[in-house]
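Let us work through a complete example step by step.
Step 1: write down the sequence.
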Amino acid sequence: MRDNRTSVDATSASPGPPLPAAIYATLKAQILGGHYPPGTKLGEEELAAQFSISRTPLRAVLGRLAEDGLVRSYPRRGAYIAAYTTSDILEILDIREVLEGLASRLAAVNMDRATLMELKALFAVPEVRKMRKDPSVLASADQRFHAAIVGCTRNGRLRDLMAKLNDQMQMVRMRTITLPGRLDASIREHQDLVSALTAGDPRVAEERARRHIRNVRRAVLEHYRDPQSTEEKRL
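Step 2: predict the structure and record it as tokens.
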């Protein structure tokens, strides 16, 4: 008989059902990885059986995912994978523009040579070829790129703010990376930002980081907002 239970990397070596923290990490990785399309219902009965866990700790897991902005729960209806509206995405991009710009300005004067080489490698020719074949490679590189910049800011509060938004930004990233014209434009914009960081120019680094996010915002508006409709699309 086939075992449909999901393998979870539990932190305990003791036998028994996986810890709620491990289930949370597994579900979160699956959501961010696109395993569940936006709007998918997360059935409690199915998940409880899948992870060999009772419903009470499972509901706590779903509550944490809701706090992260990855799941939305409705009374008497259950939990669903978050389907962001155009306005949701624009709000996240507005915040990201300010924070990414600040992070790039600070990183321009604090970044070490090893991190610069890492950023250059992420958008070197061999990696760009992979990105053009598989946009998820760009999504992964983009996340690592901006995380490295934030790590060089020497500003703990900024890192904390970015960490709180990171999951929602990843959900947005997965929805915008394939918009028409954005893949090649995004590659160029990241390469331009690397040049500013290499030059150690905080003003230019901030402007290029903000311009990158503004260009994503413009693409979202052009592709998803219908001027003839009063309804918002869900992404």
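Step 3: interpret the result. DSSP finds ten helices and three strands in the chain.
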